[in-house]
Q: What sequence folds into this?
């Protein structure tokens, strides 16, 4: 990363201001074209942070406007150190920026907040104090506990999307998110020692979710906050961010092999739909049902391949050409069917099993084999 700015904001400054004192805080603020907000933000932070709380502010900036210059100018009136990491080649979006900041931050406490004043700076000392009071590793500023609200979530559409996302996320991680009423919040304090930056794979906006699921903080506290209107400019979130969020959920949920196998199975089940539709179409067009079965199966295979490429093994596609992956995947999927029959014959003939349990067992066995084969033969480097 290139660190920009003059004097106060230089390279050496960033290292030397890293504060390891107990109770000290680094405020990490991701910015993407927020030139019109940073002055007011730093002003309110200055007003809010008491002089007894050692504080430094670290902007991680992916802007294409004059945000770094606006920060440098506004920082001159700040009593605490302000640094900027500017990324010329941003990866991971908002979450990637925050992780970049986590690597550089040295204080015992790290507060992450937005630059647009939707997160009240006055709450920063309170978040840290709540952590110190309770031995919590993570303190979440929540819109969904008594005293909090999402007043600044503009429009019924955004409220509905936010509610659905919260509900889905909590359903997917009932244990890891226990005690977090607002896993979609972008405003929180986390203890430096609870963060293992190397294991993180941020993808888009939901950096709190990433930290809560992958770092497993021991204890979580919550503080209510009112999500206000933006001070200036507009949200940087796009429809594309919604797709990223779903991929992020899948990646977090399928981090373990059993969970991946489960997802693989669920995707496989959805493949019956195109398979049966194709069978219906082909036999309807006059094709004999046996060749039609074989052709229709390829529709299911293609569907499964697409979903698996887009969702499950998205990050493991690079080491093989796509045509190679298609070939191997299709081979495994069809071998599954071919293997099933002799396996059933073996279970019934040699082991004396009933036909139905034998079939179920054979399906299970070929499924596990197909999953293991797909992981190792198609998607392993
Ligand atoms: N460095 C960097 N890179 N910063 C970014 C990027 C990026 O790609 N995208 C957005 N930001 C910065 C913005 O400049 C802002 O400071 C902050 O991240 C939040 O971006 P907004 O665009 O204002 O987000 P929002 O208001 O739609 O969403 C906020 O509220 C949601 C809850 O409804 C965020 O806090 C979300 O995390 C939160 O879920
Ligand atoms: Mn915002």
A:
């Amino acid at each position: 990363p290139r660190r920009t700015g003059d004097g106060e904001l230089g390279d050496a400054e960033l290292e030397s201001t890293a504060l390891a004192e107990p109770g000290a805080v680094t405020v990490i603020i991701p910015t993407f074209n927020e030139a019109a907000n940073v002055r007011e933000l730093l002003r309110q932070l200055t007003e809010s942070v008491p002089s007894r709380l050692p504080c430094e502010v670290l902007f991680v900036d992916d802007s294409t406007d004059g945000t770094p210059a606006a920060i440098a100018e506004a920082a001159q009136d700040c009593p605490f150190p302000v640094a900027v990491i500017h990324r010329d080649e941003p990866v991971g979006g908002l979450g990637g920026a925050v992780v970049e900041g986590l690597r550089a931050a040295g204080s015992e406490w790290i507060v992450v907040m937005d630059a647009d004043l939707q997160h009240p700076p006055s709450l920063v000392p309170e978040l840290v104090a709540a952590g110190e009071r309770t031995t919590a590793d993570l303190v979440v500023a929540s819109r969904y506990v008594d005293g909090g609200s999402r007043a600044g979530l503009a429009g019924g559409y955004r409220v509905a999307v936010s509610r659905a996302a919260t509900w889905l996320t909590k359903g997917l991680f009932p244990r890891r998110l226990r005690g977090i009423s607002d896993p979609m919040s972008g405003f929180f304090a986390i203890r430096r020692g609870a963060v293992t930056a190397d294991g993180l794979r941020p993808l888009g906006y939901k950096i709190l979710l990433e930290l809560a699921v992958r770092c497993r903080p021991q204890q979580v506290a919550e503080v209510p906050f009112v999500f206000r209107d933006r001070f200036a400019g507009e949200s940087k979130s796009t429809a594309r961010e919604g797709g990223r969020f779903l991929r992020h959920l899948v990646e977090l949920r399928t981090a373990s092999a059993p969970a991946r196998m489960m997802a693989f199975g669920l995707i496989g089940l959805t493949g019956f739909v195109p398979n049966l539709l194709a069978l219906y179409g082909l036999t309807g067009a006059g094709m004999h049902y046996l060749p039609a079965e074989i052709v229709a199966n390829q529709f299911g295979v293609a569907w499964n391949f697409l979903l698996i490429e887009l969702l499950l093994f998205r990050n493991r596609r690079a080491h093989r050409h796509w045509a190679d992956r298609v070939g191997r995947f299709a081979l495994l999927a069809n071998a599954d069917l071919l293997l099933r029959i002799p396996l059933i014959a073996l279970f019934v003939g040699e082991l004396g099993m009933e036909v139905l349990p034998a079939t179920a067992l054979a399906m299970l066995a070929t499924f596990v084999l197909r999953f293991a084969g797909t992981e190792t033969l198609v998607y392993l480097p």
Remarks:
- The longest strand covers residues 25-31.
- Residues 30-32, 34, 60-62, 90, 93-94, 97, 114-116, 118, 153, 162, 184, 186, 205, 235-237 surround guanosine-5'-diphosphate-alpha-D-mannose (ligand 1) (CB under 6 Å).
- The beta strands are 2-3, 25-31, 55-61, 82-86, 109-112, 138-142, 188-191, 220-224.
- The two ends are 28 Å apart (CA to CA).
